[in-house]
Write a structure and sequence with these properties.
This protein is of the alpha+beta class. Helix content is 27%, strand content 30%. Strands 3, 7, 8, 9, 10, 11, 12, 23 and 26 form a nine-stranded mixed beta sheet that branches. A five-stranded mixed beta sheet has the order 17-15-16-18-21. The chain has a five-stranded mixed beta sheet with strand order 30-29-31-32-33, sandwiched between helices. The longest helix has 21 residues. It binds one RNA strand through strand 17, strand 23, helix 14 and helix 15.
Length: 599
RNA sequence: CGGGGAGUAGCGCAGUCCGGCAGCGCACAGCGUUUGGGACGCUGGGGUCGUAGGUUCAAAUCCUAUCUCCCCGACCA
């Protein structure tokens, strides 16, 4: 491609809204163009990167016997109604009606359609197992798109779905996808770690997320450097401290004016925050056991005062669809007092319609805590779970945090930020049962297909690669996904036609040899061309000018580390191909076997 | 949805407080001089000042409503 004809525009300054490096550089390099919040055009340079990422995904999916399909973006509501997600998912799902008033949605993900497809084709165990994948557009009406391509509303996802006859088959296949995902990310030059994750709206039994570590990440990860334990903070567990073994003391009311926070309370009483119980009041949307309809349920969560509530753990413990903070009116309606609340003496009608009391296991094991008296400016001392109030559930509700002890080895946990670039889920039968995706086994019994699903966001992956590979001059693309592998900077002008001829010859030779080369033949000054080559991040730069030609050489420079040198004209094509191969070899060296057990 | 910020030429911004010809830099077009790390001079094109309504002799500027975008939070695969 000749840059004189390339549809692009570089900018010295990025639009004001771009704050993170990856976003600024994609805009400055003219790879994407925003047209609405979280919706972007891809320009030719950006699209070439995207296509190269997708080619790598296809190779790795094919390598584990994936078969590519293409499913629609627009789905009939009926498919999503069968799994209940038409109701469960809120306004993240874009819905529309056709001319006859029938309901449709834009696909946020494709479990329903995939399971429906499988049900149409599969009838026998002989057809299993298999994996289907596609690289396709998703639309999720995010409440807050942000950070350029990191969180968008319309995006391209590689999503794959496995179909097995039993869990043993899924358990055997899952680690192959796990390895495949590391291959994809490493071939794209992206360092990731895999962490245990919540199954969220997907449902299922096991899930991992592939996280690119970066301070701009939206997820907090809890990791142990000593034993390798790592998990999303949403599900991370840790070794809780031993509770005191003291005998329960008589409960005692104390006057604690103005102590509406744990910190104030502990200071006022001269005790540690660990000696208090913290009450968190929430309204949960749950499914009513009798009617099946959604209803709001008051939930009283209790964690130790020095710990934070993990809302994901609570959500899973009570099978809630979502949580929101309770209002002061709602808190008083159940007999509690905001700022001085505890489950002691709450209205607990036998019909189960009262507040649900969910208590962290550490609180249940700790004797003689300070808790609210449900009366303004008063707390109780020596509160003991079981004696002073009953818990509906005693579970782990506490958020893991930096400095706590690793559940596996007792080492010190660290918290880091990451961006989720991929995820893999063991789905089980949720979708196959709903969609009637069954097969007949050897005995003629009808059984639901066991599913797994596996996703990677391509634009997010690109953004993370730039986030990791950039400097003050611009992007430093890994050779595997660079828009072009080589750029020729022509220093020809009207006064040196011999340089023009040499540039044209070199360009023609490289093209003929199949080199992925971009020619900067614009009538710009050298500085402009060098700066644009840096900004675009082309890995190998060739400079063709009178100075080198006089000595029979072309200069080269690697974008990655600034390494430079001269290549003789006589062997230029082979030498350039060798440089390209060397760059690929660096990436291939990062490919190693990954064991699922380590995560 | 809550809090904060911003909408003026393709991009970056000034002008708004205190109403009075819509500006600057980059980019773009033409001419000339330049020509190995974002050149210089001259000339030129380009703006419903987010939108709608109001006040006023006069509105980018004041008032009201509304839309959009960005950041933090909530939410989220």
């Amino acid at each position: 491609m000749r840059m004189s004809r390339l549809f692009f525009q570089t900018f010295r300054e990025a639009p004001a809204e771009a704050e993170i490096a990856g976003h600024r550089l994609m805009l400055r390099a003219g790879m994407i163009q925003p047209i609405a919040a979280g919706i972007f055009d891809f320009l030719p340079l950006g699209l070439r990167v995207k296509h190269k990422v997708e080619a790598i995904m296809r190779q790795e999916m094919d390598a584990i016997e994936g078969q590519e399909v293409a499913l629609p973006l627009v789905h009939p509501a009926e498919l999503w109604q069968r799994t209940g997600r038409w109701q469960e998912i809120g306004s993240d799902m874009a819905r529309l009606k056709d001319r006859n008033g029938r309901d449709y949605c834009l696909g946020m993900t494709h479990e329903e359609v995939m399971a429906d497809l499988a049900s149409a084709v599969v009838s026998s165990y002989r057809q299993l197992p298999f994996m289907l994948y596609q690289i396709q557009t998703k639309f999720r009406d995010e409440p807050r798109p942000r950070a350029g391509m990191i969180r968008v509303r319309e995006f391209t996802m590689k999503d794959a779905y496995s179909f097995d006859r039993d869990f043993a088959g899924l358990d055997a296949f899952y680690p192959r996808v796990y390895q495949s995902y590391f291959n994809i990310f490493r071939r794209c030059g992206l360092d990731v770690i895999a962490v245990e994750s919540d199954t969220g709206m997907m449902g299922g039994t096991m899930a991992h997320e592939f996280m690119a570590l970066t301070p701009v990440g939206e997820d907090t990860l809890i990791i142990c450097d000593e034993c390798g334990y790592r998990a999303n903070r949403q599900v991370a567990v840790f070794r809780k401290p031993e509770a005191d073994a003291a005998a329960p003391l008589p409960r005692e009311e104390v006057h604690t004016p103005g102590t509406t926070t744990i910190q104030a309370l502990a200071e006022y009483l001269g005790i540690s925050q660990a000696q208090t119980a913290k009450a968190v009041f929430l309204m949960a949307e749950v499914q009513d056991e009798q009617s099946g309809a959604a209803r709001e349920q008051f939930v009283f969560a209790v964690v130790r005062g020095d710990m934070e509530l993990n809302e994901t753990k609570l959500t899973n413990a009570i099978k809630a669809r979502r949580l929101r903070p309770a209002t002061p009116e709602e808190i008083r309606a159940v007999g509690a007092e905001p700022g001085f609340g505890s489950p002691i003496g709450l209205e607990r009608p036998a019909n189960g319609n009262g507040a649900w009391v969910i208590v962290d296991e550490l609180v249940a094991a700790s004797p003689n805590l300070v808790a609210g008296a449900n009366k303004a400016d008063y707390h109780y001392k020596n509160v003991n779970v079981g004696r002073d109030f009953e818990a509906d559930q005693v579970v782990d509700l506490t958020a893991a945090a930096e400095g706590q002890a690793c559940v596996r080895c007792g080492g010190t946990l660290a918290a880091v930020r990451g961006v989720e670039v991929g995820n893999i889920f063991k789905l089980g039968t949720k979708y196959s049962e709903a969609m009637g995706a069954t097969y007949l086994d050897e005995e003629g019994n009808s059984r639901p297909i066991i599913m797994g699903c596996y996703g990677i966001g391509t634009g997010r992956l690109m953004a993370c690669v730039i986030e990791h590979h950039n400097d003050e001059h611009g992007i430093q693309w890994p050779i595997s996904i660079a828009p072009y592998q080589v750029i020729i900077v022509s220093l020809a002008n009207e006064k040196n036609p011999e340089v023009t001829q040499a540039v044209e010859d070199i360009y023609a030779d490289l093209l003929a040899a199949g080199v992925d080369v971009l020619l900067d033949d614009r009538a710009e000054r050298a500085g402009v061309k060098f700066n644009d080559a840096d900004l675009l991040g082309i890995p190998i730069r060739l400079t063709v000018g009178g100075k080198g030609l006089k000595n029979g050489v072309v200069e080269y420079k690697l974008r990655r580390n600034g390494e430079d040198g001269e290549l003789p004209l006589a062997t230029l094509t082979q030498d350039v191909q060798a440089l390209v191969q060397a760059e690929f070899a660096r990436l291939d060296a990062t490919l190693v076997a990954e064991s699922l057990e380590a995560a």
